[in-house]
Design brief:
The chain is of the alpha/beta class. It is 37% helix and 22% strand.
């Protein structure tokens, strides 16, 4: 039997072998030939009009596929997926038949999201009450915070040492049912009086810093995070060691005084990946006088630094001061960041939710006056204007929620980006390809093309039509497996 495609129909045809057919054709008697007219006709169809179908695991038809590198939407494409990998993206129709088929019906199909800054301790409750160990239920719980909202890959950037063996097992044994994880181990900090948190790894000197990096590398960790509370000798030692081992290095750089590490200082030794857009002014406020003025202004406008919200509001106030009093220095610094081709994680939702309403949260700081709230919005706008300036100059902004509800927060971040001047394709690129590049997995995920993992989203409503559609219903596919059909999230303030 031959399975053939004629037009849009699949038919099964009984055919003879080549030897049998030749024997028939060579027979001299027309009487015997009368026994085989149908066979000969069907054989002709096979030769001239029939295409044999090919099988794949998943066939997605009628898809409008987003190329995040160019911003082009490729119309009416068919994605061929086998073993979790995109084998090809073809024009319709094709001669493929899928074990599972999805008719996208002309809907937008994009890469899924990559969150480059999470803390799994937050998912499991208070950091002080986090479990001593992880199990399969922990993996499921973590995945449920991300997969239904389109985030299929995460970078853990600080967690307890006791969790590392389990997390490294997850990292090595990826599964279509769970979010993919990568880890930096614990963020490395210098020994001090302040109690470490979020799984910090404390080192007392340069030798310990070097040893910790080597220990992580030998355990199978290819990423490392350096903290702003890491003194210069330890910082230099950790960086040089990680760099020599070709590890990906990330820095939470910039604190609240001149004694902490700053971005401009770490650029000189080669650090490229930075966490949190809100810490940029630390490199511009270079004089004690600057900090004294900011502290005085903040005290007058907001009072004491006595809560997490107040700390965030303080960081935004630093942007205001830099924009007004250090404009030239700020522009020069942004130019330097572009020349060095660095990347930054966003953490925008985390900042905004302190004073503003997002699609799933109310403002956290309930003590703000109307004037204080307006000042926070003004300061956030300044941050976003400078972020857009950085992006336009080539600084790679990447998604990094730093949130318990990371999946939801990522959708909120994309909306915020678009509300403050970024295009929809910019948002998709920030959420996919840029994160993949920072982690070093851009040849595996982050784009939809031949040879990449089939980690993708089919959108019921396109964000290109309305940015509110980032929260609309969507089909999540990971590793070629359909996982979620996510309904519009309840309590969405836009609905």
């Amino acid at each position: 039997m031959a399975k053939c495609l004629i037009g849009n129909s699949v038919i099964f045809i009984p055919v003879l072998t080549i030897a049998e057919t030749l024997a028939i054709i060579q027979k001299p008697h027309r009487k015997e030939m009368r026994n085989y007219p149908i066979t000969i006709i069907l054989l002709a169809l096979i030769c001239f009009g029939c295409k044999q179908t090919k099988e794949c695991d998943l066939l997605i038809e009628n898809a409008n596929v987003l190329d995040v590198e160019t911003g082009e939407i490729l119309q009416n494409k068919t994605l061929i997926v086998t073993n979790g990998i995109i084998q090809n993206i073809l024009d319709e129709p094709t001669d493929y038949e899928g074990i599972e088929s999805i008719d996208a019906k002309g809907k937008l199909v994009t890469p899924s999201f990559i969150d480059t800054h999470i803390h799994p301790t937050d998912v499991f409750g208070d950091r002080e009450k986090a479990p001593k160990s992880l199990n399969d239920n922990s993996r499921k719980k973590l995945s449920n915070e991300y997969l239904p909202f389109g985030t299929t890959t995460t970078l853990m950037i600080g967690q307890p040492e006791d969790w590392l063996d389990t997390i490294l097992y997850w990292q090595k044994n990826q599964n279509s049912n769970f979010v993919d994880v990568f880890t930096t181990g614990g963020a490395i900090i210098s020994k001090e009086n302040r109690e470490p948190y979020i799984g910090h790894s404390v080192v007392a000197n340069s030798s310990e810093a070097k040893a910790k990096v080597i220990e992580y590398y030998n355990r199978g960790i290819n990423h490392i995070k350096l903290y702003y509370r890491l003194n210069n000798p330890e910082f230099q030692s950790a960086f040089e060691t990680a760099d020599s081992l070709n590890m990906n290095i990330y820095g939470h750089i910039g604190g609240f005084n001149l004694e902490n590490q700053t971005i401009d200082k770490t650029l000189s030794i080669g650090l490229k990946n930075y966490e949190h857009l809100g810490i940029i002014p630390n490199s511009v406020l270079s004089e004690k006088e600057d900090w004294d003025i900011v502290n005085k202004l903040f005290s007058e406008k907001f009072g004491e630094l006595n809560s997490e919200s107040r700390v965030i509001e303080y960081l935004l106030e630093l942007f205001r001061y830099a924009e007004i009093h250090k404009k030239d220095e700020l522009n020069k610094f942004i130019e330097q960041l572009s020349i060095e081709k660095v990347s930054f994680s966003t953490t925008l939702h985390f900042l905004y939710q302190q004073f503003g309403e997002t699609y799933f949260t109310k403002p956290l700081d309930t003590t703000l006056t109307k004037e204080q709230t307006e000042r926070c919005f003004e300061n956030f706008k300044i941050l976003m204007q400078n972020t857009k300036k950085m992006y336009d100059k080539g600084v790679e902004i990447r998604l990094g929620s730093d949130m318990v509800n990371g999946g939801k927060a990522n959708l909120s971040e994309l909306i915020l980006l678009c509300e403050y001047g970024f295009s929809v394709n910019d948002a998709f690129k920030i959420a996919s390809l840029n994160g993949a590049k920072a982690i070093g997995i851009e040849n595996e995920v982050g784009t939809l093309k031949k040879g990449r993992k089939a980690n993708l989203i089919i959108w019921e409503k396109s964000p290109f039509d309305d940015i509110k559609n980032f929260t609309s219903e969507k089909i999540i596919i990971k590793g070629g497996k359909q996982l979620h059909r996510n309904s519009t999230i309840a309590n969405n303030v836009y609905n």
